[in-house]
Amino acid sequence: MVSCYEAGRDGLWRHRFFVSQGLENAVVDSASLEVHRRSRRAKTDRLEVPKRLTMLLRHAAGAKKVWSVVRVPSVAEEDRRQLHRELLTTQRDRTRVVNRIKGLLAGCGMRLGLQGEVETQRDEVRQWDGAPRPAALRARLKRAWQKVQPLTEQLGSLEAERRVALRTSEERVLEPVRQ
Questions:
Q1: At residue 164, does pLDDT exceed 70?
Q2: pTM for this structure?
Q3: Among residues 19, 162, 154, which one has the least CA distance to residue 97?
Q4: 20 vs 2, 14, 72, 130, 174, CA distance in Å?
Q5: How high is the pLDDT of residue 45?
Q6: Considering its fold, how many domains does the chain have in total?
Q7: Which of 51, 68, 94, 102 could bridge to 29 as Cys pair (CB 3.0-4.6 Å)?
Q8: Cα dihedral 138/140/144/147 (nearest 10)
Q9: What is the secondary structure of 116-141 as a DSSP string?
Q10: Does pLDDT of 119 surpass 60?
Q11: Does any domain span residue 92?
């Protein structure tokens, strides 16, 4: 038996399950699947299954250029990536909140350096005409800044954890990262 599925949100556990059951399985890169560019049609299994089945048969027969097959990492390789992924996600979350703060301020003609004593700066900043900030905006900025602080702390602890892992790990895979 041969099977395939499109790589996506479900992760790679299905592939591991199919292989453990003795099935041959291909995880296909969705960007390599053929689509009709001119026709605006619904994307449903009823419409796509016949095409996918034809492509799977060609792939099983040995055709090389049918689609791109994703290399499935081992569970250990996948686990090793979690710290890095969490670090990137936390950085993006912090950047998103900081950019929202900057956008709120810019909308009123204000600027704020988001380093050092931000609370003091936040209380002193005035609108473009020298008027104090409106109360609702002040409250919103305060709540937004309260989101930034834990993200900053989490980033620090994740970076420290990464440094320790790089220093203490004996895995050869991490050698390029250390350099």
A1: yes
A2: 0.71
A3: 154
A4: 13, 10, 14, 69, 29
A5: 61
A6: 2
A7: 68
A8: 110
A9: SSHHHHHHH---TTSPPPPHHHHHHH
A10: yes
A11: yes
